[in-house]
Amino acid sequence: MLSVLISGDRPRSVVLGVLLMAILIGLATAPFLFPGVRSLETAARICVFVVLVASYDLMLGYTGIVSFAHTMFFGLGAYGVALAVDGMERGFVPVVLGAVLGALAAAVLAFAIALFSLRVRAIFFAMITLAVASAVAVLVSQLSGLTGGEDGMTLRIPRELTPAFKLLNEPVLGVRFNGKLLNYYLVFSVSLVLFLVMLRVVNSPFGRVLQAIRENDFRAEAIGYRVVWYRTVATCLSAVMAALAGSLYALWLRYVGPDTVLSFEIMLDILLMTVIGGMGTMYGAAVGATLFVLAQTYLQSLMGVAAVALADVPLLPALLNPDRWLLWMGVLFILSVYFFPTGIVGRLRESVRSG
Amino acid sequence: MSDTILTLTGVQADIAQYHILQGVDLAVPRGAVTMLLGRNGVGKTTTLRTIMGHLVARQGVIGFDGMDITARATSARARLGIGYVPENMGIFSDLTVEENMVLAAVSGRLLAERRDRIFAAFPPLRTFWTSDAGTLSGGQKQMLSIARAMAEDRKLYLIDEPTKGLAPAIISTMVAALRELKDGGASILLVEQNFAVARALGDHAAVMDDGRIVWSGEMSELADDAGLQERLMGLSMEGK
């Protein structure tokens, strides 16, 4: 049963298996295990980014396509929901419709970019995606009448998903059963389903062809596979998944803005999460996104605690000052890339093979 | 049905600014092994790559099975029935041996009967069936590379130096497998530097020099005439 769910793609490492189970259980029980607004925000962000990073890995890790337009697709999904909600009666229909339209727009744009540029060299494709993504980001911030410009848009999501909606009047186990909780479980379950769908895709015959293309595209062509067609489909699929992740994020935050869904910083985060987790494995996306978001959220507080604890030691408190958290984040990246060149998942699987 | 599966007429091709094929005329008979011979660097591999469409024929016509395929995409040529085993083998090392084999069957499935025949020809592939292809030895990779071409029936096989750099024991395995392919009625165009292998397998031979075919005829005729070999292929010939 489990094997069918994960499409026969076993973790192939005990440590990795335990890690993945811990992430899954942690996210599934986050509202109860880690009560509090901040931890729930973090858990939801992890869910969304696992999908987003996995969809990016579908292109980068499985097909060998370097794209810088992934936040654009993410943003299309988010703005799709925002615009639909803005223009229609409050309810679930505009949310679903917006998500579908956003995904469709992402697919069409991905198809156009792919058709124009996948025949050429990888670096040229990367440049085109960069240019298109920048153009869209500028467009979104300029069309302030439609998109709210730099201020973004606040979403009137269905009442059932807001804190104002009460399922139970009294908290159970210290947790309020309200719309926010429902919203979290919506984000969690949709993310899980999307992740499993992508796992299915990469372990299908289609996914094998993608891997073959990544390794030797001429060889795949010589066997009889139309490489451009496969690359185009992979790009579109990846874009659709990213857009759906964006829709979820908009629904969760009840807000969209250029900084939260379109910025180039997010693009860099996605790249780092993919590389740290391990390219070419869906599980790498899950591990990379979880660790990265956790570090982003908690490194600063952790350093604050450490700085206080080491207050009597010379130099260390100054180094561990919470304001320097970005410095330490950078150090962590360098170390992780140095020690895990194949990513955390790649490293764990290697140690099994050699051990 | 004509008795020629592949014809090249005045084919010219370039690699970057170098004019490699200077007008190749070649006819590959159906159901036989044609050896493409010649010194290093005369354009044998380039000829195969041009037939496969990796390089564009600047001039001339490539006819396959009664069709003009000069302008077809590589994948279309493959689906018409040309199987290509390149010199560098081109196996997918991140995938398992099994996945490599299944991919090689464009129909998406590898028939059990076909798989057993491949196991019989190349026993190591059975042993390493679920291993990553990247972990195979050089000889085993070459076996996989040829086995991949045998995953489905192809009308024509282009095989580039299958014995290059292999130990003698593995060479004989390779020759036996190619002979089986040949006995099954396959049409093969085979580039080979090892003259003993060429003599053992070839029905016909075409010798290239300087981007052209300079001699073609029966393999036995070439094998029996040391003077002709000397004149056509010079010193690079091995294992006379």
Automatic annotation (TrEMBL), chain A:
One of its GO terms (cellular component) is plasma membrane. The chain crosses the membrane at residues 14-34, 46-79, 91-116, 123-143, 182-202, 228-250, 270-295, 302-320, 326-346. It is a multi-pass membrane protein. Its main location: membrane. The keyword RNA-binding does not apply. Keywords: Cell membrane, Membrane, Transmembrane, Transmembrane helix. GO terms for molecular function: branched-chain amino acid transmembrane transporter activity. InterPro entries: ABC_transp_permease, LivM-like. It holds the Pfam family BPD_transp_2. It is found in: Cell membrane. This is Amino acid/amide ABC transporter membrane protein 2, HAAT family.
UniProtKB/TrEMBL annotation, chain B:
One of its GO terms (molecular function) is ATP binding. One of its GO terms (biological process) is L-amino acid transport. InterPro entries: AAA+_ATPase (IPR003593), ABC_transporter-like_ATP-bd (IPR003439), ABC_transporter-like_CS (IPR017871), BCAA_Transport_ATP-bd_LivF (IPR052156), P-loop_NTPase (IPR027417). Residues 6-235 form the ABC transporter domain. Keywords: Amino-acid transport, ATP-binding, Nucleotide-binding, Transport. SUPFAM superfamilies: P-loop containing nucleoside triphosphate hydrolases. The keyword ATP-binding applies. The keyword Disulfide bond does not apply. Pfam families: ABC_tran. Belongs to the ABC transporter superfamily. This is Amino acid/amide ABC transporter ATP-binding protein 2, HAAT family. It comes from Sedimentitalea nanhaiensis.
